[in-house]
Design brief:
Elements: H1 3-15, E1 20-21, H2 46-49, E2 59-67, E3 88-97, H3 102-116, E4 124-129, H4 133-142, E5 150-153, H5 155-158, E6 159-161, E7 166-177, E8 195-208, E9 214-227, H6 228-235, H7 248-258, H8 265-286, H9 295-312, H10 325-332, H11 338-341, H12 343-378, E10 382-383, H13 385-393, H14 399-408, E11 412-413, H15 415-433, E12 455-456, E13 463-472, E14 475-478, E15 480-481, E16 495-499, E17 502-512, E18 515-520, E19 531-536, H16 538-561, E20 568-573, E21 578-583, H17 590-605, E22 610-617, H18 618-624, E23 637-643, E24 647-650, E25 665-674, E26 677-684, H19 686-737, E27 740-742, E28 745-751, H20 757-771, E29 774-782, E30 785-792, H21 794-799, H22 804-814, E31 817-821, E32 825-830, H23 836-841, H24 843-853
Parallel strand pairs: 1-2, 4-5, 10-11, 12-15, 28-29
Antiparallel strand pairs: 2-3, 3-9, 4-7, 6-7, 7-8, 8-9, 13-14, 13-19, 14-18, 16-17, 16-19, 17-18, 20-21, 21-26, 22-23, 23-24, 25-26, 27-28, 29-30, 30-32, 31-32
Helix pairs in contact: 3-4, 7-8, 8-9, 8-12, 9-12, 13-15, 16-17, 19-20
Amino acid sequence: MTSNEIRNQFFEFFENKDHRIVASAPVVPYDDPTLLFTNAGMNQFKDVFLGNGIREYKRAADTQKCIRVSGKHNDLEEVGFDTYHHTFFEMLGNWSFGDYYKKEAIQWAWELLTEIWKLPKERLYATVYKTDDEAFNCWETLTDINPKHILRFGEKDNFWEMGETGPCGPCSEIHINLSDNIDDASLVNKGVPECIEIWNLVFIQYNRKSDGELEPLKEKHVDTGMGFERLVAVLQGKNSNYDTDIFTPIIKKIEEFSGKNYEGEQNQIAMRVIADHIRTLTFAIADGAVPSNEGRGYVLRRILRRASRFARKLDLHEPILHKLVPTLAQTMGEIFPEIKSHQKQLEEIIKGEEESFGETLDRGLEIFDSIVKKLKKEKKTEIHSEDVFKLYDTYGFPFDLTELMAREINLFVDKNKFEILMNQQRERSREAGKFSTAPAFLKFSSGDKSIESSEFIGYDSFESKSSVLAAAEEFVVLDRTPFYAEAGGQIGDTGRLILNNEIINVTDTQRDGEVIYHKIDTPKKNLEGNIVDAKVDVIRRKSIMRNHSATHLLHKTLREILGSHVKQAGSLVDPDKLRFDFTHFKKVSKEDLKAIGQLINHKIRESLQLQHHRDIPFEQAKKMGALMFFGDKYGDKVNVVQFGDFTMEFCGGTHIMNTSEIGLLKIISESSISSGIRRIEAVTGEGVERYINSQIDVIDEWSNKYEQLIDEMKSLEKEISRLKLVENFSKLDSFIVNKNEVDDLAIVTGLVAVNDIEQLKNLGDILREKIKRGVGVLASNFDEKATFVCVVTDDLIKEKKLSAGKIVGELAKLVGGGGGGRPHLATAGGKDISKIDSALSNVENIIRSFINGS
């Protein structure tokens, strides 16, 4: 039975039991910022168990893509060294939401395992929670399992909890004993490969309260999970998950690339690591994650680097991981079409990461090996923290990779010592980057007063009458203020405070916790307790608001056009421009930049209305579909900014009321700021007008410069022509000095540099005047051909019957061309430039033949 057949049989079985077959949730849980990756089948149904959500069906079954790499489910370090740990795996599951319960769940599990898949009943064991008599009785009376194979265990093994509080309940696990002693119950729950868990049936029947009390739920649920890779190994009779048809196509491809067989411990470990990790990378990136230096992106980067290191153990020093994506798409693309539809993009992202890390990896491995050799000579087991730090700081070699490699060869790395060195380095960097004076508000004190917060009213108003709570040096704190303090990439407001007709300029607004500080241009005394008119610079603020709202449109558009992997990585919003940093694996093409600009401006023209949801519960914002990301911090109350149905994000900034107020957006640059992070800068509204005018000024400036250059070129050409003429004049005299004579006439020949035939004819006329009595032939090479001019003095035309036209006619034959003209001046040309010298040397013979012939 193939793995695909096994999966399909699972679906068919539960579909016949009236279950809805649902699609796997993405492995990147966008609606749950507390979760790094989807790590269990129940994740997509968590809202149902918490009582916050409902489904249109009561029964469901699926295969869920899962990744476990951190926390209590950290399988990363074990992967490859055994035959059953994985970072990516499928979890088959069936679910009941207040419908069937223990009886059906147990009966159906037994039916599928023993009647459909024909697992030997004598090898199966069922475990139940120690006080769960209901489940025990179901196994004993509803199945034909060996009663001695029904075992009771405590909370550690057979009681499931979502967290310290919330839904929970007993579970019943099904194990298979693969050892020679099938009645050895002591192997169950011992974590040995001879006896493994196949299926876990969770019965959610309680709510654990904060005091630990278990409160029965009104609706009871069933949540089951069965590790697909482990199941396939059992059904295909394999001792290793990696020997099943899930992994063998990938391993065969690795064998092909490396020229090595899946034999020997080192090769097997390396191939298992690569085969597992490429699955994790492929599915995570297909669902929108991107390798980066934080959050889940950093986890992916660690996984890729670990796989790359093991590829080196197979002597694979060129990028190879991305070449495995097509194999994975072919074997799993039918059940998970996203990896097939994104195949090219997946290959590009993974290849880019491999290439950027390859040089660092090779250099780091070489240095690490030298450190290890030195330690072995010294018979030491701890790598010096200075060496670990140097690997990281000087060569860019990640600490976690050093730690992992050290552990594999039983060496110790002291993480605390490494952190001390890191902190010292950070402190040095901070000291080097400090200003001569620290911001005054950090040293702010208002005597014995405790100022806990300032009220921000700037969403609805640009001015207010406010009481000065405190003032020190150049900072003022008001009880309520329309001034926005710098946050979330939006810079702080400027404006004025007016006290008794005296204007106090506010040059910046900052925040420390909930307290808003107004920086003033001139320190004032005795401000505390006074009422001031606080007025924001409205024109400046509106420009900032346009740019901030445009940033939201840009973020959504990038995700629409480039893909859901795009995530904001930083921003700056000021009156003049917006700057947006985002995750993306390559340069944005000109075509995509054009499409991005077009879509944003289309949405601007659609006049999308602002919907500003303020201080709403976080859970409500999630249900609304507000964009959120893992690692971002959200309070119990949040602000959500929405423009029509196009974009909805968490945001505490200030915005325009309608996208039409933006006017127009123009992207002015796109660049890389680090590996996997791109930056777009853009202008809006009047900023676009200023940008266009500046570009026109540049064009005008260059146009003027161009005209100047043209004039200069013409002048230079004239000067060059004059200099050539002077040079050619001197050459003519040289040619005459070196003339040949036939009877009583002079024969003058020579090669000159001219630009056109007219210049050559002019030189011919001058030569004719200079030689008095004779024949002159000048040759030149221009326009990729040989050109001649021949001149004959008037006396020779009469006496010797010589003709310039006839002479050049003969010369033309020598260079593959033709020509003619008057008796005293004629021209000719030909294609064969290489024959010019030969033709000139034949002039005397040609003239002799004409004289003798006359």
